[in-house]
Design a protein that fits this description.
Layout (H helix, E strand, L loop, with lengths): L3 E4 L5 E4 L4 E5 L2 E2 L6 H16 L7 E4 L1 H9 L6 H18 L2 E2 L5 E2 L1 E7 L10 E4 L6 H8 L2 H22 L11 H16 L9 H19 L7 H15 L3 H10 L7 E7 L10 E6 L11 E6 L5 H4 L5 E2 L15 H4 L1 H18 L3 E8 L2 E9 L4 H13 L5 H7 L5 H4 L3 E2 L1 H6 L2 E4 L1 E4 L2 E7 L2 H9 L4 E5 L7 H6 L2 E4 L7 H9 L2 E4 L5 E3 L4 E4 L2 E4 L3 E5 L4 E4 L4 E2 L7 H13 L3 E5 L3 H9 L5 E5 L7 H12 L3 H26 L4 E4 L6 H4 L6 H11 L3 H11 L11 H6 L1 H20 L6 E5 L5 H22 L6 E6 L2 H5 L1 H4 L5 E4 L1 H9 L10 H6 L16 H15 L4 E4 L7 H9 L4 E4 L4 H14 L8 H9 L1
Parallel strand pairs: 6-7, 19-20, 20-21, 21-22, 29-30, 29-36, 30-31, 31-32, 32-33, 33-34, 34-35, 35-36
Antiparallel strand pairs: 1-2, 3-4, 3-5, 5-10, 8-9, 8-10, 11-12, 11-14, 12-13, 14-15, 16-28, 17-27, 18-22, 19-26, 23-24, 24-25, 26-27
Bound molecules: adenosine-5'-diphosphate and magnesium ion (MG) (2 copies).
The site of one magnesium ion has 2 residues, from loops.
């Protein structure tokens, strides 16, 4: 028996069982909004709303603990749960003035799942539970509406057969055609036979006949009769919810979202309210603000005489909630505001109440039963990155939240969307528009059409860009949606499954594009009378909903034109305590990064400058030279090129620090391709005055078994000091030249792949000697630093010694991760996916810094380095410098700055601000100081 044991004074113990069932309704609730872990998101918020006096149909929540227990007990529920459910049901009956299973005045209920975190569409709800041969006549008499009752009944049979009898029972449909599909076909056939198009055109007699047919199809398909007993239906529903927690779709969604499998789901049993009770009833969904743009307008959709998921399922085009938010596809329909102004006003007041209470945008479900409004759900709404930024800023400005909360509201990765490329508007003007749908996810998406999730996955794995085109998406499509660059659906509204999921991911998505006719079997769609086949290119503008033929050019984003973004980033920069630099080699990239807020260059890789056509020849001459004199001659030809490069970068950075890394890759990389290119090889041989064979021999000699651990980094500069000499000369003379022209410069020379202090000291001596010579030549003094990358584990371990020769450390976490794990980054593809799949690793360590392992080396090296050299400047220049969780780690271990690629600079700035809010550093290390030291 589970429970807490309480000992009395005699040492006897009683088991005081934990509460399994929480009631809500009639203005009261056992639970509250903060109990999400126990009641799930839906249950906790239903309780919260009930407590706030918002009209919520009465019901109760069975806790997530019961779900865990259900699995521990191999699918059995303890008696205590049955008892508590019976008691709670009595309370519901009292509030609703109806009785579950009663022949005269039957109470019907819904059985709804609800995990801690919202998992759109993952778990299935069954409505109208309690309808059976015994209760049908009573409900008909009570409502005076036979059509309504049989409409509810056919829905119950379909949902119950699908969710409880098939999916939860683990039955795999024969020929892939599940019971739901068969029932849908039967309904279609019925409509056709009656010559009608809408579900609502079927009358009571039609639906009654349909229900009989449904029941016989269920029997035939599943081999079991649909249960004609309210209790059996209720418990079947409850167990099915628990069962669906471990359904394939739910598991796959949790894997993608990183939701722990142990959490379990709660079950909500709630009195039904009927949106399908004729033309004075309706159902709808809404967002308290526009989830796509963030605008402070009440945004939603509703359908007369409908129930449950009709709005989301896209069977009819839903109507707009109000006049201001009408769009292309629903502007001809009547808004709730115009149609039923009183109910709208009431709903609007609830909208305001909920926002004020939750202090965040809410995603709500409501139903109107014969003119009376009920709320069925509220939760924090998913939103695009664009909307997240605007809402956060506007809520802070209206004092609903403070600025720090506003900063914490936006996930750093969401900014990515504002930084997302857009379809070139110029090209859009002349492009062939083939259709228009609803703009559900912003940005541009260009790719090849595919029609199934499987194809999307397969093609994407081959590196193709695909656009998933579907009538509507369902949770089964989640992985394919993930693989696609964009999603297009023919049906569904702004609150459809596709829209919700894409918005959560910040992915380009267009929904409800009715003019696109899809034939999945033929793998093609038709639009404007033209056929588009699988593999054809199309382009989507997810911000406007326009779809174009072909492959349109995309433009980089211009976040600086978004005023809310600019404001939020300003607030973030005020709280941020570490600097943000960029990794860039070209003046153009550097300028882009500065526009994004970069405060310096943390990594300029000189080898990238070596590959240009006019230089590679000299690089190769240098490499194949067999004596110092020849090598020096070749190298000196490179000097002028390098100097020009540095002048360009230094100018672009206008006095901000620039870290230049000396030559790093193994030399074979520059010449390896010559073995396949006889012409080039002969040209080089001629240039060097040797035979092609001699060159070939030299190249072969450079071959290494494991170049990553081979002759590279400072090992090159030690073997060929002339290379270091030339690079130091190029850097310092570029600085000298600019200094003379009164341009500020701040070079930091960085020696790569150091593992011992002696290596660094060797290189340092060369750099210092050359720097002295150059300063003498130019008759000017240059301020510069010499430091090293910490990327070999030994360097981290001996950081106290290395700091004696280094004025700064920059953590090269790509190599550090390779060498700490012993994974070659280029070969990791063979096993990393398997590792992630099996939870051997929680995340790709090349994407998010492994804080427990590699992070320890970083932390230790910072401490050891600073123990030797007080205030030693430390930064990071690996890819991790632009990944939010890694940036936060860098803040915590005391780095002075992070450096990342230009497009990730805003994300790094923002993540650093969040880190400062989460773990503020002492006042002494304010941002001003961090900035100053970043410039030092
Ligand atoms: P999901 O998590 O997929 O949104 P829900 O449990 O919210 O599933 O239910 C699905 C649909 O059924 C929603 O539209 C919801 O509003 C509706 N619904 C659930 N319970 C009731 C009820 N007691 N009365 C009327 N409609 C309900
Ligand atoms: Mg659902
Ligand atoms: Mg819902």
């Amino acid at each position: 028996m589970r429970g807490i044991f309480i000992f009395n004074q005699l040492g006897e113990h009683h088991s005081m069982a934990r509460k399994s069932v929480y009631f809500f309704g009639g203005g009261k609730a056992d639970g509250k909004g903060s109990m999400k872990n126990l009641l799930g998101g839906k249950g906790a918020n239903l309780a919260e709303m009930a407590g706030l006096g918002i009209p919520v149909p009465a019901g109760f929540t069975i806790t997530t603990e019961v779900c865990t227990e259900y699995y521990d007990n191999k699918g059995k529920l303890p008696k205590q749960v049955h008892d508590e459910v019976a008691k709670a049901m009595l309370k519901v009956e009292r509030v609703m003035k109806k009785k579950f299973g009663d022949a005269k005045n039957p109470l019907l209920v819904s059985v709804r799942s609800g995990a801690r975190m919202s998992m759109p569409g993952m778990m299935d709800t069954v409505l109208n539970i309690g309808l059976c041969e015994a209760t049908i006549p009573g409900l008909i008499a009570k409502s005076g509406d036979e059509r309504f009752v049989y409409d509810s009944y056919r829905r119950l049979i379909m949902m119950y057969a699908d969710v409880v009898m098939e999916k939860a029972a683990g039955i795999e449909p024969v020929d892939g055609e599940g019971v739901r599909l068969r029932l849908e076909h039967a309904m279609e056939a019925m409509k056709k036979a009656k010559g009608v198009t809408e579900d609502t055109d079927l009358d009571g007699a039609d639906l009654k006949e349909l229900c009989d047919e449904f029941k016989s199809i269920v029997k035939k398909t599943i081999g079991k009769a649909f249960p004609d007993n309210p209790e059996e239906q209720l418990w079947g529903g409850i167990k099915a919810v628990f069962q669906s927690w471990n359904g394939k779709r739910a598991i796959s969604y949790r894997r993608i979202e990183g939701i722990p499998h142990e959490w379990g789901t709660a079950v909500n049993v709630q009195a039904m309210v009927y949106g399908n009770l004729g033309d004075s009833s309706a159902t709808g969904v809404a967002f308290t603000r526009d989830p796509a743009t963030g605008a402070n307008v009440f945004y939603g959709e509703w359908l007369v005489n409908a129930q449950g998921e009709d709005v989301v399922a896209g069977i009819r085009t839903p109507s707009p909630l109000n006049e201001t938010t009408k769009n292309e596809s629903n502007k001809h329909l009547k808004s709730l505001e115009k149609e039923w102004p009183k109910v709208y006003k009431q709903l609007y007041a609830i909208r305001n109440k909920l926002e004020k209470h939750y202090r965040d945008m809410q995603d709500i479900e409501f139903t109107i039963e014969d003119g009376v409004l009920y709320m069925l759900q509220t939760r924090t709404g998913k939103r695009t990155g664009v909307a997240a930024v605007r809402m956060a800023v506007e809520m802070a400005e209206s004092k609903l939240i403070n600025k720090e909360t506003a900063i914490m509201r936006v996930r750093p990765e969401q900014l990515d969307e504002l930084l997302h490329p857009m379809i070139d508007p110029g090209a859009e003007k002349t492009a062939n528009q083939i259709a228009k749908g609803l703009p559900a996810g912003p940005g541009g998406g260009v790719g090849q059409v595919v029609f199934t999730s499987e194809t999307a996955n397969e093609w994407a794995a081959k590196g193709k860009k695909v656009i998933l085109v579907r009538n509507e998406t369902s949770p089964e499509d989640v992985e394919g949606m993930r693989s696609a660059v964009a999603i297009l659906t023919a049906m569904g509204g702004m609150t459809s499954h596709a829209a919700l999921v894409a918005r959560g991911w910040g992915k380009c998505c267009i929904v409800g594009c009715g003019s696109v006719r899809i034939d999945v079997r033929a793998r093609q769609f038709t639009a404007e009378g033209k056929v588009y086949k699988e593999g054809d290119w199309i382009s989507l503008n997810g911000t406007t909903g326009r779809i174009y033929e072909g492959q349109l050019p995309v433009l980089p984003a211009q976040p600086e034109k978004n005023k809310w973004y600019s404001k939020l980033m300003k607030w973030a920069d005020v709280v941020r305590q570490i600097g943000v630099r960029t990794n860039a080699e070209s003046p153009e990239d550097a300028a882009q990064a500065v526009a994004f807020g970069a405060e310096g260059i943390g990594l300029a890789r000189t080898e990238h400058m070596f590959f240009e056509a006019d230089r590679i020849i000299h690089v190769r001459e240098m490499i194949v030279a067999t004596n110092e004199a020849d090598r020096r001659k070749a190298i000196m030809k490179l000097l002028d090129f390098q100097k020009k490069d540095f002048i360009g970068i230094f100018k672009a950075m206008a006095g901000k620090p620039v870290t230049v890394r000396l030559l790093d890759p193994p030399l074979h990389e520059f010449v390896g391709s010559l073995l396949e290119d006889r012409k080039e090889l002969e040209a080089l041989a001629k240039n060097c005055g040797v035979t092609p064979e001699a060159i070939e021999d030299r190249i072969k000699a450079l071959h290494e078994f494991n170049p990553m651990l081979g002759h590279r980094g400072c090992r090159l500069g030690i073997a060929y000091p002339e290379i270091t000499e030339m690079q130091a000369r190029a850097i310092i003379s570029a600085a000298a030249e600019l200094t003379k022209k009164k341009v500020k410069v701040m070079p930091e020379i960085m020696v790569p792949l150091v593992g011992t202090k002696a290596e660094l000291a060797h290189q340092r001596a060369i750099i210092e000697r050359v720097a002295a010579e150059v300063q003498k030549e130019y008759k000017t003094k240059i301020k510069y630093l010499i430091g090293t990358m910490i990327e070999v584990p030994r360097a981290a371990l001996t950081a106290n010694e290395i700091a004696e020769a280094a004025e700064f450390f920059s953590f090269g976490t790509n190599d550090l991760t390779q060498m700490t794990f012993g994974y070659s980054r280029d070969d990791v593809g063979a096993f990393l996916p398997i590792y992630l799949e099996n939870n051997i690793l929680p995340r790709d360590p090349f994407e998010a810094l492994d804080q427990d392992g590699v992070g320890q080396l970083v932390d230790m090296a910072v401490r050891k380095g600073r123990a030797t050299r007080n205030g030693l400047k430390c930064g990071i220049c690996g890819e991790h410098g632009g990944e939010a969780s890694s940036v936060k780690f860098c803040h915590r271990v005391g780095l002075d700055y992070v450096s990342c690629s230009p497009f990730r600079v805003p994300i790094a700035r923002f993540a650093a601000a969040q880190a400062a809010i989460e773990n503020p550093r002492k006042a002494a290390k304010s941002k001003a100081k961090a900035k100053r030291s970043a410039k030092k």
